[in-house]
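Appendix B, example 12.
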Amino acid sequence: MDSWGMLAQADELARRGQAFALATVVWRQAPSSGQQGSRAIIMASGELRGWIGGACAEPVVIREARRVIAEGVPRLLLLGTPEQFGAAVPDGITVVPISCQSEGALEVYIEPVLPVPHLVIVGRSPMASTLADLARALGWRTALVDGPDFSAADADERSMVVVATQGHGDEEAVEQAVAARPAYLGLVGSSKRGASVLGYLAERGVPQDQLDRVRVPAGLDLGRTSHREIAVAILAELVQLRASGALQAGLPDGAAGAAEPAEAVDPVCAMTVTVGPASYPLEHEGATYYFCRAGCRREFETDPAAYLKKETRC
């Protein structure tokens, strides 16, 4: 797939609410196999779609891309040997030494593409309409659903749900919302009203651990406020929780807290590689070694002692 095709695929993934990183080669030094303008999509799971470079560059880009997704901050990488760049590397660029026999080099820009926040507001009060307008102004994907029309299918584990039915079927709306297990669930109402709603649902058999996740009253405590200010208080709480990372568990594809794959150092070229069948594993004297390419494995097999002695000195 060419680079324009990768952008089309990235657009489709973003529309589906998938978290991923887009890596683009912005500079190359021959004879690197990556070309300027080459693009690849890296999912939070580590799956790579597209082409960014050969066996030396690919695992490094995947590793750094997963970190970019987790942190939400773009990164500019310079891949090559330290001797190629010396003190000429500008501030802000991350240099990752790679020991590739081709002696090429790459500069790769990796940017995170994270899901747009999804907010579902249940209710038709003036406050609910104001909250919807404010969320849309932030670019959030926002749905305003009347209480009787709302069901668990309107939200998922990545959604933020605010029940603002305000006495018109609160119990039914909260029960449906709880079933969706959203990243955030807030009920607009007083603490007394909230205790009554949650108590009723507990009697109906809704698990207590799910009810404990309901925030009531929803929003930051700003004291006595108007309905417009209540909307601001709720939005402020959602922004605060997202900024603190408290809602990261709702990110798809392991974007939050994605486990780093196990890594090993190639004893021949000192490249960091991912532990797995694709890294040419070799058993030697009870230990398993991994390599960036078949050539490194063959060199190791020729004289393992020489490389293990070198590894010990390091």
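Residues 249-258 have pLDDT under 50 and may be disordered. The longest strand covers residues 20-29.
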